[in-house]
Write a structure and sequence with these properties.
Strands 7-2-1-10 form a 4-stranded mixed β-sheet, with no helix packed on it. It has a 4-stranded antiparallel β-sheet with strand order 6-3-8-9, with no helix packed on it. The chain is α+β, with helices and mostly antiparallel strands. It has 1 helix and 10 strands. The chain has 2 domains: 30 residues; 137 residues, Immunoglobulin-like (Sandwich).
Length: 171
């Protein structure tokens, strides 16, 4: 009974069926675009506007092309960012041994790095973004990303992600 052709034909067809189901499931999982936003915080120097920072990570198995990014607060109002803002130069004043002023060094932490051009994000890589915004951000914002994925066909997508912002002054 075990060595009949009908039995082995059934076993092979069942094995082929389960392999096909697994292939469909695996292809569906591989074709999903997974993006993660983390390290969200905002900070402020005395004389400058608020700076919002976060990191976007591509967790999918294929590269993506980031085209555009907009930010919205909890009330769905758009956070407008200041394009080309340069941190204000400050000076330290000394009286010893004689009165003089020295320019303070502004670290790269305070320079913005927005998504102002198309960026390519490889699989399992990330990009740090910094924006100066007009108003104080809330502790919870939405980031709307317009991006394209690469594969057999180039597909444009929009994804709305949320990020919790931590105030650096509270740390």
């Amino acid at each position: 009974m075990i060595f009949t052709i009908n039995f082995w034909s059934f076993v092979l067809s069942a094995l082929a069926f389960f392999t096909a189901i697994y292939a469909i499931f695996y292809t569906h999982i591989q074709n999903r675009t997974l993006l993660l936003i983390y390290n969200g915080f905002y900070d402020k120097r005395e004389q400058d506007p608020f700076m919002v920072c976060f990191t976007i990570k591509n967790l999918s198995s294929k590269p993506i092309q980031l085209n555009n990014l907009t930010m919205r607060d909890e009330n769905n109002e758009e956070l407008t960012w200041i394009k080309g803002f340069t941190p204000t130069q400050t000076y330290s004043h000394f009286t010893q041994p004689y009165p003089h002023s020295i320019r303070d060094i502004i670290g790269s932490y305070w320079h913005d790095s927005p998504l102002d051009k198309i960026e390519y994000l490889q699989p399992n890589s990330d990009i740090d973004l910094k924006y100066y915004v007009q108003t104080e951000p809330s502790n919870y914002i939405y980031v709307i990303l317009d991006f394209e994925t690469f594969g057999l066909s180039k597909k444009g997508k929009t994804k709305k992600l949320s990020v919790v912002l931590v105030n650096q002054k509270d740390k």
